[in-house]
Each structure stands twice: as structure tokens, then as C-alpha cells.
Amino acid sequence: MTVPYEKLTNNAFSVSLNRLMLYDLPEEEDSLTSLATWKDGNKELTSLDSTELVDKLSYNLHEIKEDWYVVAQAIDVEATKAVQEKDEKAKPVVIAETTATLANKEKTGTWEILHKLTAEQVLDKTIVLFNYVYENKEAFEVGDEPVAKDASLNNQAQTVNCTVERHVSIQTKAHLEDGSQTFTHGDVVDMFDDVSITHDVLDGSKEAFETILYALLPDGTTKEIWKSGKIDYEVNDKEFTKTVLAEKVDTSKYPEGTSFTFKEINYDKDGNINGKHNEDLKEKAQTLTPKKVPTTPSTPEQPETPTVPSDSQESSPTVKTFPQTGEKNSNVLLFIGFTLIFATVGYYFWNRRN
């Protein structure tokens, strides 16, 4: 309906004019605000027990419908600032994206979006959440502009942090091939180091460790004699184990009484030391020691004593005699001589008697 201007001043149109002005007021624009927290309700994460983000979206939309299409993005703040310093038009660095088709029962209300992130995605990061609301999924797919959005890199209500302190624990045991921890001085032996490294933060990062073998000399000094070099591994399991071998250690090259021990160093993904073990070289479980050679005390030599027979009577020494030359012939002549004497005496008395 067209009304001439001059008739609009007529009192009869006063009510109608008011109604026209009411209908000509522009409708309120669609808007979206949101508040991001970790699942525990805090803005800062200090433990990786739960890495889920909760985003509460407050909307004011022009109609009630069941197919609003919401795109929610987790943005790496520091990485985005770095790329946009080089190129102002560079797109934000997206860590993860969540989409959902949602309904609203009123033109104003709230939705809750859950971002299920991994430890690797959140660790040591500052994250801001971007939200976009589209008429429907088709509008998003064809590239239409969102009806409402909340996407500011400096929005503190949408910003969260993750600063988790890492702890590394190293446990080890040194041994020989037979499992023992003792050797004979002068032997050439293989020395083994069983290493167990425990992490409380499993972020999949690449770390490294090395073992160093020391000789503990009898005079109290130490000497580094072997290094494994850095051995790389990934922090995917709570406990990482590895056996390191120092081959053919010639113990004869070191003074008698020398022991040997291993020391371990762990390096983080940036090459910085984040763990040490047996730094003072005094841990017994890490030490291989020489066998003790038994020694017997020396006693002075005692002179031999003669053996006494069990009957307690002293035996006289046995003298062996040898026959002298002519001894047998002399006995025969003596016998003949005595025989002749007795015969002569007998004959004399017999003759005298007669």
C-alpha cells in the first residue's frame, strides 16, 4: 500500500503510522558467543589424565530449526601467529575440527561441543576455539558464509593452556653374559647394561639416551672407557626397555682391583638433558667387580722329627755285617785243632791207665 506523504500527517493515520514503524524495525542479527574450558572446568591443564575440551556456545538466531550446522575448530595460537607474521592472510593452524547438526528450541539458548583431543595435540600448547554456525550442512559445503561466528585469535574466553611438567625415571642393572656381576682380573668380557626408562607423559615425542662405561680405579679415580652414543626411541609406552652391550672389555689393561660401572643420560626431543642415572658412579646394581683371590698365611718350616713306634720302645739301629775274607776257613781249622787236642789228651790218659 502506498500512502502520500501529506496524508501521513493526518491524525487518522497516527495508529497506523506507529504500526508501520514497528514493522520497519530491523530484526536483531544472529550472534554467537562461547566459553571454552578443559573437562575439569579449568582454563589450564596440568595433567594428561583427560585432554577433552568443553565449549559452551550461547546463540541468538533468527529462527527455530533442527538442522543448524556447527563447525568447531581447535586452533594452535602460537603456530598461527608465527605463520601470520609472514603472511597476514594465512589461515589459522587447525589442531582438530568437530562438526555437528544441531537444533534450537528457542531463538536463544546454549549448545555444548566436546573436543576429544590427544595428549600430543594439546601438550605445551595455547589453544583457542573457533565456532561457525551455518544454515545447514549444504550451505557449508557450497561455501556460503556462516550466519554467526565466534572466531578471534585473541578471545580469552575461548583460550585454554596446557603446561604439564614431565618426569623421567631411569632404572638399570649391569651384568656379564652369565648374569653375574663379578669377573676375574685379566679376562676379556662383554658387559651388559639393562636400561628401563619411565615417562609420566606419553606424547609420542622422539627422545634419546646413551650409556657410558667407567673404570673405577683402585686409587679412587675414574676413567671413561666407552660410550654407546645416542640411541633414539619414541615416548609411546610408559616404560621403555633396552639392553646395551659393551663388547670385549679387556680387564687386564687396568690395575688389579679395578671395578666397572655404567652411567646413563636421557635427552628430550630438543636434545636437552631431562634425566640422569648413577651420576656419582656409586650404585652397586650398576657395578661389576673383580673376584677376590683367596690368600693363605705363610708359616715357618718345621724340622722333621723322627717317627716313634706305637709300642713306645726305642728300636736300636740295625747294623748289617759283612763276612770277612778267610773267616770260613779259620773256623774249620779251629775245629780240627780242638779235635786233635781232645784226642791227644784222651789217648794220654787211656795209655797211662793201662
UniProtKB/TrEMBL annotation:
The residue ranges of the T-Q ester bond containing domain are 31-162
Pfam families per record: TQ (PF18202)
Keyword Transport (UniProt): no
Q: TM spans, by residue?
A: 332-350
Q: Where is this region: Disordered?
A: 284-324
**Keyword Cell wall biogenesis/degradation (UniProt):** no
Positions with biased composition (Polar residues)? 311-324
Amino acid composition bias (Low complexity), ranges on this chain = 287-310
What InterPro entries does the entry give?
Answer: TQ
Any idea which UniProt keywords this protein has?
A: Membrane, Transmembrane, Transmembrane helix
Protein name as it appears in the record:
T-Q ester bond containing domain-containing protein
- Please give the organism: bioreactor metagenome
